[in-house]
Write a structure and sequence with these properties.
nine-stranded mixed beta sheet; 15 helices; 18 strands; alpha/beta; about 25% strand; elongated; single chain
């Protein structure tokens, strides 16, 4: 059955792979096949073939706009063979028509080392504005909506962010539909763990890409009236009295191998102010509590064990900042990490003192358990700028570490009782109203080892984490839109 679909296929000169993909698409009912070469290779196949710098550039987006004459177009953006179900195209068109969607994507199977593995994806939300949203490699577009979406930026010289701009613009004019059905199988060659992939966007080699992505995202936020401007930011006004200047906050559960290192790092800080260390021991059972108790002779150490048994990391943080011994500034230290010098705390508090900040975020270096460096090295989040960081924060997946907060602001906002994303939620919320200070030199060793909570997660956990962060973005975007609307 024909479905009036033009299929655009990524091509790198491997005819065998392309032939297998083409055969699968034609059996599924594709009307026309076009090869998109990014290697400059000349193909020996009887299909139209055009060369582009990459699959995200404006030249490709504009070419499809002019080339496609069918009601629907499909892009397959991987070079490896695709095996699409015989009725997949029919199903995608059906959903597009029923939902009036401008984009349709689906769950998939992946072939990894010869094994077929289910790879479900998540629903698209208003807050799914990050540029690394996982649509999979097969995306169907309503051609009319695609053409309408590019009309605003077809003249822009985007080399990396054009398809991202297409997607954001489509989301403004139509639904983006997710089919929770496994419609195709692809070969997955990037078998790195999710905990490794998450740092791709902060690799310095990708900085040019990030600048374009930020421009596109900021334009989108302005368009939907969710942008925060400098005039929206207010000064921090602290009226509370605090027993000391700072508290280092360490939530911990079963980290007997690392908690001692973290405590030594915290207690060895040299400062010109008084501070304490609040450890929230979330009912550890592996000897962690005993290690903490061995430091009890240091009166700066406050060892809290919650009365409740249902607290995540955020809930533990809430208990720490609600304690009347908490200092004016609450400073993060994870139980398996450590500060990289004895002046880290002083540098963070100095940053607070030099600027009117509700939050300060440092930079860190990735290491293994024994503190040997790991790529990509220092994670400094230099994509943050004072001018636009509060908007760009909605595009990226994290703001960096170590994080420090004005305690009074945290008490007012409250901390989500979760063990993933609570820090991101706070960063978004605080950036809506207050300035965030940045330190771009490394202050912190972030250790990657088998005990990390995000080192190598299954796809179901990755999806749950990503969905939650998209939900946070949705709520933040809606709050910003409401505030901008009410200002009129």
């Amino acid at each position: 059955m024909k479905h009036d679909i033009t299929c655009y296929i990524a091509y790198n000169g491997t005819d065998e792979y392309a032939e297998r993909t083409i055969k699968s698409l034609e059996q599924a009912g594709a009307t026309r096949i076009v090869l998109l070469s990014t290697s400059g290779m000349v193909n020996n196949l009887p299909y139209d073939c055009y060369t582009f710098p990459n699959l995200q550039c404006i030249e490709l987006v504009n070419f499809i706009d002019c080339d496609c004459t069918t009601p629907y177009l499909l892009i397959y953006n991987k070079y490896t063979p695709l095996d699409i179900n015989n009725h997949a195209l029919e199903r995608m068109v059906q959903v597009a028509e029923d939902s009036q969607a401008g984009m349709v994507y689906a769950d998939r199977y992946e072939l990894r080392n010869g094994q077929r593995i289910a790879h479900p994806v998540i629903d698209y939300q208003k807050g799914s504005v990050r540029d690394d949203f996982d649509f999979g490699s097969v995306i169907l577009y309503n051609t009319q909506m695609y053409n309408e979406a590019i009309s605003e930026f077809s003249h822009r010289n985007f080399q990396y962010a054009a398809m991202y701009a297409v997607r954001l613009n489509i989301s403004c004019i139509s639904p983006i539909a997710h089919i929770s059905e496994y419609l195709y199988t692809e070969v997955e060659e990037d078998t790195r763990a999710g905990g490794v992939k998450q740092f791709d966007y902060v690799d310095p080699r990708n900085r040019g890409v990030q600048i374009e992505m930020e421009q596109v995202c900021t334009f989108h936020l302005r368009k939907i009236k969710a942008q925060v401007n400098e005039c929206d930011i207010k000064d921090v006004s602290i009226k509370e009295h605090f027993p000391c200047e700072a508290s280092i906050i360490i939530p911990v559960y079963n980290r007997v191998r690392t908690i001692g290192d973290a405590l030594q790092s915290a207690l060895n800080q040299h400062t010109d102010f008084e501070y304490n260390v609040i450890v929230i021991d979330n009912h550890s059972t592996d000897g962690t509590s005993e290690v903490i108790s061995s430091y009890s002779s240091d009166k700066r150490l406050i060892h809290l064990i919650p009365d409740r048994n249902d607290l995540g990391i955020g809930g533990c943080w809430q208990q720490a900042i609600d304690d009347n011994r908490c200092g004016r500034y609450a400073v993060q230290l994870d139980s398996d990490d450590l500060y990289n010098s004895d002046t880290t705390l002083q540098q963070i508090i100095d940053c607070f003192r030099q600027g009117n900040y509700g939050m300060v975020i440092g930079s860190y270096d990735l290491t293994d358990f024994d503190l040997n460096p790991l790529p990509p090295g220092i994670i400094d989040h230099k994509e943050w700028t004072d001018e636009n960081g509060r908007n760009n924060a909605l595009r990226i997946n994290g703001l960096g570490a170590p994080r420090a907060f004005e305690t009074s602001i945290l008490r007012h906002i409250g901390i989500p009782n979760v063990s993933y994303g609570e820090d991101y939620a706070l960063g978004l919320r605080i950036s809506r109203e207050y300035r965030i200070g940045r330190i771009f030199t490394s202050l912190y060793h972030c250790r990657r080892w088998e005990g990390n909570s995000d080192a190598a997660l299954p796809i179901e956990r990755i999806n749950r984490n990503n969905y939650y962060k998209d939900q946070l973005r949705t709520w933040e975007i809606e709050a910003r839109i409401a505030r901008n609307t009410n200002k009129r």
